[in-house]
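This part of the workshop introduces the protein records we will be handling. Getting from the letters to the tokens is the skill we practise here. The record below serves as our worked example for the rest of this section.

…
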Amino acid sequence: MDWNAAIETNREALRRVLAMLVAMVGSGPLGGTKSPETGLSGERTPEAMAGARPTLPRYLHRAVLALLRPAEAAARRLVIIVARDLAAPPSAPRLGRRSAARGGAAVAAPRHTRPLCLPLFDPLPRWNRRQCNAAAGMPRISFPGFTQPAPIPQPPNDFDRVGATRLASRLAALGRALDDLPRQATRFARWRAARDARRRRLESGASRRIGRVSALRPGRPPGLKPARRNGWAHEVHAVLDTVHGLAFWALEPADTS
């Protein structure tokens, strides 16, 4: 199995999908709030859009999100493939505020907003999720002669403006993960080492904490739609189906016999 060729082929496919998603967001009617100091940047990169608090029509937001979910799941499995034989490096010790200020009062360090990273875990399915109609579930309690019934809220419109800051941040995080897969693989190797250490403490009775045992959720990957007779609905679904099987292959223990 040529793992390097499989990684590069699927990474280039995910980069094409990401470029298409950024083009969808950038070509749509993008709105945002202008700052009196900086203004709304003319750039349509995900980083610039995340800083400008953009808004998108609901139909475009849903369309991008429907393809972003399987793209993130495919990138997550690509990280697992890269980290198949990677050993976890030693983590640097974290210094507290008191240890940072030697022999004196603690120095308050300025807080910097960290960019969003690609999540290493699949979101778990919500088995008991209940769908409720907002109009039917609206309580309309009133006192005749004193109050008027509250108006029933209108159902969401496909052309309503919704915030796209989180969407732009996720697009930027996906791009950074595809550009630096070894760094994301190091993150996964550290989590895997911490999970194995937690499992050993659990077996020895030193701890009762189980935590997450697998980065992949059981069943179908997030965002993957069944294949049609004439093929997949989109290229991202074909990529996700391919790397899903390769990720489980990479997670199998090595044969030492």
